[in-house]
User: What shape does this take?
Amino acid sequence: MKKIAVVYFTGTGNTQELAEQVEAGAKSKGAETELLFSDELDTERIDSYDGIAFGCPASGTEQLNGMFYGSYDHYRPYLKGKRVVLFGSWGWGGGKYMNEWKVQARGDGMILAADPVTCKKKPDEAALQACFKLGEILAS
Assistant: This one.
């Protein structure tokens, strides 16, 4: 059985909805999951996960939310070679922050198991389904 962590930050609940769908998708493939707020991931346990999903909304000038980034930046050195997926929501700017995050993750040596999923504001059915699929992919 694979073990998957879904680590997210949310301010309005939109990214939490996406995170819950990622977790549901992983569980549908029989994975053991942990749904964690962004500051709850224990670096000593990162190696115990077969994959990690990270979710963060855009903030400010199309960048990762600062509250998320502080924790995520701490985790980055431990993620080299780890299978990850990325997801999040945005309210303006078209979600450009996700492309920068994807490039940074690859530069840090993470293995992106699938293309990131983003949505504008509250997730619609397509975004929820895409996040469910992210969970399935990460658990496969």
About this structure: The CA atoms of residues 20 and 35 lie 8 Å apart.
